[in-house]
Amino acid sequence: MVLFTKLLLAHLIGDFMLQPVKWVIHKESNKARSKYLYLHVLIHFALYLLVLWDFRLWKIAVVLTLSHLLIDLAKLFSDPWFKNKTIPFFVDQFLHILALYFCAFYTELPEHFTSFIENLNWSLVLAVVFVTFPSAIIMGKLMEPMSGQINTDHKSLPNAGKYIGIIERLFVLVFILIGRWEAIGLLITAKSVFRFNDLKESNSRKLTEYILIGTLVSFGLAILAGLWYTNYL
Fold first, then answer.
1. Helix H segments across 81-204?
2. Helix, strand or coil for residue 82?
3. How high is the mean pLDDT of the chain?
């Protein structure tokens, strides 16, 4: 695990700290002809050697450098196919991390993967999954009869409410798992402060009640998931 941690550190430094925006733009424009692409890859090679600090492991550095080059090239050429640019970004990062994982555990890959699956806390995975999109859909169904009575005369980001709800429920679940119930109150207070201007400007009792009900239901679903995980397993 130490080896994987070192390699991941090198990757994060190389991809996010030592890659200026100018390089990214140049790579997107020139793709395989970009000089910054190869400079970026060489920086990764140097970082891998630095964190490994053992020249006997040079093959790992070479393999990861070549894989980084190929993955970056694949991203650069496939990027125009996607309207949502976050998709190729996250796929690119996932493939990089997967390559790090394979190189870190190549001597015991089947055993390590089997152990990971066997020791995975499936109940925790279920709780986390439940408070994300399933809870968002449940929220939508519960709030649907009331949403038609709310007049919204302000613009908001697409699906912003759904993602805010998912994030807040994840926070609530984490607070319950670590036993910090008081932090949930702070989260409710923070959300109320941010919502204050919207409610003040709209001066709508229906909107205030709608937001309050939605917040309580959202927090309630997360609390139920947390209680189920901590008390009934």
1. 86-104, 109-118, 122-130, 133-147, 160-177, 182-202
2. coil
3. 87
Q: How far is CA 174 from CA 42, 127, 133, 135, in A?
A: 39, 10, 17, 16
Q: Sign (positive/negative) of CA torsion 141, 145, 150, 155?
A: positive
- Please tell me the total count of domains within the chain: 2
Of 176, 185, 162, nearest in space to 223 by CA: 176
| Least reliable range by pLDDT among 83-92, 137-146, 154-163, 196-205 | 196-205
pLDDT tens for each residue of 104-119: 888 787 887 788 788 8
With 0.70 as the threshold, say if the pTM is over it: yes
The span from the CA of 62 to the CA of 17, in Å, is: 21
**Residues 191 and 99 both lie in one domain:** no
Taking the C-alpha atoms of residue 175 and residue 181, their distance in angstroms, rounded to an integer, is: 6
Q: Where does a domain end: 65, 95, 118?
A: 118
